[in-house]
Amino acid sequence: MARVLLTGMSGAGKTTVLDELRRRGHLTVDTDYDGWTLPKGTWDERRMDQFLARHLDVIVSGTVENQGRFYDRFDHVVLLSAPLHVLIDRVSRRTNNPYGKTPEQQAEMAHYIQTVEPLLRRGATLELDGQQSVSELADAIESLGTRTP
């Protein structure tokens, strides 16, 4: 496996795909948990830098303002995307994260689709349709293969 960053809007399926890749035996990090993201909504750059220096084969998931500073450290930046109605449906039903349940948060999600997702798309090396099955998405990420020279 290569070093991969899986990014996308809330509800795109990042955590679900990461869980499947972890189940398949891959080293994964979901930066939404365990202190990877600081209160201001950015990665702990020192911690991420140290982690990436130690791990060549890892799948990291997250969407934060400063992730672009690390793009050159990943072999692939994969954008997982889905239409707004799909994102809202998913976040309203999930139990592992409270974000996206209120009308205000859903309006914020719509705004982010217009303003943040295009930036993520520009930095991505691959975009996957988050409406595919979890198995298909995990297969696609695994197919990225070994590290690029």
Spatial strand arrangement across the major sheet: 2-3-1-4-5
Rounded average pLDDT: 93
* CATH homologous superfamily classification: P-loop containing nucleotide triphosphate hydrolases
Number of DSSP strand runs: 5
CATH topology: Rossmann fold
Query: Percent range for helical residues?
Result: 25-40%
**Helical segment count:** 6
Total number of distinct structural domains? 1
Characterize the structure shown.
- The model has no long low-confidence stretch (mean pLDDT 93).
- The two termini are 13 Å apart.
- The chain has 149 residues and is α/β, with parallel strands linked by helices.
- The chain has six helices and five strands, in the order βαβαββαααβα.
- It has a single domain, classed as Rossmann fold (3-Layer(aba) Sandwich).
- It has a five-stranded parallel beta sheet, with helices on both faces.
- It is globular.
- α1 crosses α6.
Helix and strand arrangement:
Layout: E1 4-8, H1 14-23, E2 28-30, H2 45-54, E3 59-61, E4 76-81, H3 84-93, H4 103-115, H5 117-123, E5 126-129, H6 134-142
Parallel strand pairs: 1-3, 1-4, 2-3, 4-5
Q: Which descriptors apply to this entry?
A:
single chain; alpha/beta; Rossmann fold; five-stranded parallel β-sheet; 40% helix
Give a quick rundown of the structure.
This protein has 149 residues and is α/β, with parallel strands linked by helices.
